[in-house]
């Protein structure tokens, strides 16, 4: 099937300055996603969508095809849907599906991409979307709101008999999203009953959002290289 990889890399991060090109063990962050896509040898195109000429030059160095964003897609109000819609509208040839690889997941490798694609294609007639997930640190029964009265009234589980193995909940880890184009354009997100899960472990699910995440990812990446 005809498929493309999309790597969104806007400049101007408010948390970590230039987060998408920050150095992680000797490479700019976005390079890991480009390499994962290219090394999988699955895609007709590996597209880096960016608003930055600097990011574009770096992306080209690592082998990505560049799509520069227009002004309305260059600020923090631009949604993932808007970016993907723009890319799909500019493709010369339609694709059967696309794979979104966010650059903030540097420990996601070509192995994960291959597994996710294989899983999706195995159930292609049953599902329109795939989302990578990880097991949550705390099960849903342990995560409840606390209101102004500070009451624990929402924690209604008998925790004397709580066993972690019984309660397993999952959350999206941001590493891999797959979708059929028209279904995505219609629904405008990747979730719901027509979406399937691809499970990843916690190590490979690290998502860089702030300084602590960055330090943790560098530590794990260092261990991986030395291991």
Brief overview:
Helix content is 30%, strand content 20%. With 227 residues, the chain is α/β, with parallel strands linked by helices.
List the defining traits of the structure above.
single chain; 227 residues; alpha/beta; 7-stranded mixed beta sheet; two-stranded antiparallel sheet; 6 helices
Structure description:
It is a single chain. This protein is an alpha/beta fold and 227 residues long. The chain is built from 6 helices and 9 strands; from the N terminus they run βββαβαβαβαββαβα. It has helices at 29-40, 53-61, 80-90, 110-122, 181-187, 211-226, and strands spanning 3-8, 23-24, 27-28, 45-50, 65-68, 97-100, 129-135, 170-179, 195-199. The strands form 2 sheets. The protein has a 7-stranded mixed sheet, sandwiched between helices. Helix 2 links the parallel strand 4 and strand 5. Helix 1 (29-40) crosses helix 4. The longest helix has 16 residues, at 211-226. The two termini are 36 Å apart.
How far is it from the N-terminal to the C-terminal residue, by CA? 36 Å
Tally the beta strands: 9
Strand order across the largest sheet: 5-4-1-6-8-7-9
- Topology as a string of helices (H) and strands (E): EEEHEHEHEHEEHEH
**What percentage of amino acids are in beta strands?**
15-25%
Q: Sketch the major β-sheet.
A: 7 strands, mixed
């Amino acid at each position: 099937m005809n498929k493309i990889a999309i790597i969104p890399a806007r400049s101007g991060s408010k948390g970590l300055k230039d987060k998408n090109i920050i150095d992680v063990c000797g490479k700019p962050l976005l390079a890991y996603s480009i390499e994962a896509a290219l090394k999988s040898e699955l895609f007709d195109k590996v597209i880096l969508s960016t608003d930055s000429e600097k990011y574009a030059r770096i992306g080209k160095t690592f082998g990505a095809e560049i799509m520069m964003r227009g002004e309305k897609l260059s600020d923090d109000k631009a949604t993932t849907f808007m970016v993907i819609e723009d890319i799909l509208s500019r493709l010369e040839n339609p694709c059967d599906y696309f794979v979104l690889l966010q650059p903030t997941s540097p420990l996601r490798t070509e192995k994960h991409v291959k597994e996710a694609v294989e899983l999706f294609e195995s159930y292609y007639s049953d599902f329109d979307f795939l989302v990578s997930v990880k097991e949550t640190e705390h099960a849903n029964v342990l995560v409840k709101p606390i209101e102004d009265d500070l009451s624990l009234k929402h924690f209604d589980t008998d925790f004397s008999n709580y066993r972690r193995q019984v309660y397993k909940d999952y959350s999206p880890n941001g590493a891999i999203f797959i979708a059929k184009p028209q279904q995505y354009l219609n629904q405008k997100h990747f979730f719901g009953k027509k979406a399937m899960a691809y499970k990843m472990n916690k190590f490979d699910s690290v998502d860089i959002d702030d300084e602590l995440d960055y330090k943790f990812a560098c530590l794990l990446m260092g261990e991986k290289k030395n291991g």
